[in-house]
Amino acid sequence: MGLKLKNVLPMFVFLLLASTAKAQPAALDVTSAKYGGKPDSDITQALEKAWTDACASTTPSKIVVPKGTFKFVGTTFKGPCKAAIEFQVQGTLQAPVDGSQLPKDDTWIGFDHVDGLTLSGGGTFDGQGAQSWKNNDCNKNRECKSKHINLRFHFLTNSKILDVTSKDSKNFHVNLLKCEKVEIKGFTVSAPKESINTDGIHIGRSTGINIIDTTIGTGDDCISIGDGNKDITVTNVTCGPGHGIAIGSLGRYPEEEPVSGINIKNCTLTDTTNGVRIKTWPASPKDGTASDIHFEDITMVNVGNPILIDQEYCPWNECKKGVPSKVKISNVSFKNIKGTCIDPVAVKLVCAQGMPCENVELSDIDFKYTGNKGPITSVCSNVKPTINRVPQPLACATGAAAA
Q1: Any signal peptide, and if so, which residues (predicted)?
Q2: Which of 21, 281, 296, 344 is deepest in the core (most CB within 10 A)?
Q3: Does residue 310 contact residue 344 with C-beta atoms inside 8 Å?
Q4: Taking the alpha carbons of 212, 218, 222, 228 in that order, is the dihedral positive or negative?
């Protein structure tokens, strides 16, 4: 009996090791002889070939861009694919400086209809956007031509974006649309405050998105959450420079969908023009809703407009400010939010006339004003928030209009 066991064990160990080895994804190195990619040269074709092979594989595979700097004109990697893919960027991918050399749409690198994608490797996606920012008038011209987004994810499911950097995008750094169950962790956005229209992460019509342990410095919203989103969690995010963390803008277009289940927690905002805010356009073409939105445990350092609900958002003065927003805001809480601000109006809740905000809570709010434009204060209209442990100047002391 002992002899039989002695003979069986080595075979068992061999089979176990063979099974483990077989489960490892096949590595498709874009600099291998098969794909022919080389540092300091354009590897667009090499990456496209590697993607074609990975997408056709019936077992998990791994595309590898090794350390070094590589030129990449841009493309959209399309699924559906037959198995999970890890897209590992260890080096730097550089976009052309001249936007005319990029794809005809506004996407530099896209992933479309992919299930089980992991984007990882510690590398950098460098949009080289400085020249584009100088020619960008989208902050004042609604008809401006859209620049290229660094990373666009459409219809991504059960996927992860881990430990990579988006640098100097010409437009938004990351845009997620109609994605489900996506985790963004250890992600970095790097761009100066003068970079125009460069939202760090924009989310639209997606469900189950988790943004964790992420650092965002850019020239627009660090995170912007548009219409149709639900079950979005943002935790341990550092923001600055930028325009803060925003829900919206909402209520601009007739086909917009409700927003619900948004949780922003344990974040730090430094030197941002806004803190946490919900913004909707006046004169909305259609009724809408934004509900179950919660901001908690947030530290702000030298922030303008730390807490803001703005239902009169109109950046180009091209809307009818006298016509109220039709987006109903309800079940919103701001809890344990403290720090310093550079605007004397530390809390501003401006809700829609005729459609007041409902079930709004302010708890454990405290700011120190560092400027010289008068005492710190708050302004509220068309809202009667529940107030807990908030000093009087911040407790909707002025302009507290009845609903």
Answers
A1: 1-23
A2: 281
A3: no
A4: negative
- Architecture per CATH, domain 32-135+146-212, reads as 3 Solenoid (2.160)
| pLDDT band at 369; cut points 50, 70, 90 | very high
pLDDT tens digit sequence for 266-296: 999 999 999 999 999 999 999 999 999 999 9
CB atoms within 10 A of CB 287: 13
Contact 66, 115 (CB under 8 A): no
Cα dist. 49→127, 151, 275 in Å?
22, 19, 44
CATH topology of domain 221-357: Pectate Lyase C-like (2.160.20)
Q: Cα angle vertex 73, ends 36, 162, to 5°?
A: 85
- As a whole number of angstroms, the distance between CA 393 and CA 56 comes to 62
List the domain boundaries for the chain. Answer: 32-135+146-212, 221-357
Does 221-357 match 32-135+146-212 at the fold level?
yes
Q: Please confirm, yes or no, whether 243 is among the known catalytic residues.
A: yes
DSSP codes joined into one string, 319-342: S-TTSPP-EEEEEEEEEEEEEEES
The catalytic position among 148, 202, 243, 294 is 243
DSSP 62: E
Q: What CA–CA distance (Å, rounded) separates 47 from 218?
A: 28
Residue 15's pLDDT is 47
Residues 66, 40: contact at Cβ < 8 Å? Answer: no
pTM as predicted:
0.92
State the pLDDT at residue 85.
98
Q: Which two tokens stand for residue 68?
A: 């070094």
Structure confidence at residue 280 (pLDDT): 97
